[in-house]
Structure prediction request, 144 residues.
Amino acid sequence: MFFNIVGGLQILPPDVSDPPADSDWRYVRPVPDCALINLGDAMVQWSGGVVRSNMHRVATAPGEQMGVERFSVAYLVRPALETSMRRLKGGNVIPSGADGEEEDICAKDWKQMRAAQIINGQNKPKSLGGRRRMAENAGQEELV
Prediction:
């Protein structure tokens, strides 16, 4: 399998004000022989916020890569309509719900609820999830 090493993908960090400025977007540095996988909000829901879905866009690659052609293939996957959106359980990576047992909702109803929240202005599209950790060299908290 071949992976592109041309830059251009940008993400919007989760703590950016709304609306974001062009300077708020951060380039994702391509890593040779690595695939980049963008996770969606369903994975944030299932992981209890451990993994992050970032708002992202593709811009002209910076520097010397500016003139290099970029080709991408998007493969989008959604949960089946009857799939439970309840937080996954097991291990010590995914935190348990704070209020005990959480309500179960199927993917169809969850997608409709999320769309209605966005349409009604209750939930603006944004980067979601990610854990906070202490940066090793700076002693400051950061999102990972």
